[in-house]
Amino acid sequence: MLTIDLNADLGEHPGTQLDAQIMPYLSSCNVACGGHIGDEVSIRDTVRLAKQNGVAVGAHPSYPDVRNFGREILPMQPGDLAASISEQISLVKRICEEEEVQLHHVKPHGALYNQAASDRFISELFLKVMKEVAPGAFWMGLASSISEEVARVSAFPFIAEGFADRQYEVDGTLRSRSKRGAVLKPAEVLLQVEEIVTNHRVNASSWLPLKVQSICLHSDTEGAVTLAREINEHLVSKGIQITAV
Q1: What's the whole-number mean pLDDT along residues 8-18?
Q2: Fold that domain 3-242 belongs to in CATH
Q3: Which of 44, 171, 190, 212 has the fewest CB atoms lying closer than 10 Å?
């Protein structure tokens, strides 16, 4: 049976019911851990919610930049960036241990994610932190990227990720959110998911081969809860099992 992981970035909307509404349709989630948003209370709430729903938990570290929601590259010394990533992952890991939940994976957020996907130095820095702080967890990152290459060369467990709601460029990177059409409209999402999961390709002006193990739906995409349900139901109707890696 064909399987796929369906994930979303959660813990990013404190004080709302969004996480509780979207969680039942997921098989894994990425918990904001203070860099771009989140604190011990929101992390613990999200971890507990994931545990209740049988959803795998991942840490979602970013540049320490609440102002820009972690979507801008900060000019940081490598040691400072590594320390920040380590601190964020360690916080989620500690809470997971206290809640008797395994830290399943780590997925960088925003600018850190995109930079690691194209910058070998940042990917190697991230890998070094992973080996020190979360050696038993998967690294989740952009499929067919520098991140995947760095992980594979080091024999570090990697989850190749694709996106339900983001436009791809011809080189396999994600279109910058500052550009028109970066976030797909709801009607386009199901089409992209089916192409990625069943045909292992994505439309980036022309068809681009793309083999993934996980599909991400951003929780701040318009109609995210409805989309999560529709993606889940659509994949299941095609005989595809939704499960964590």
Answers
A1: 92
A2: TIM Barrel (3.20.20)
A3: 171
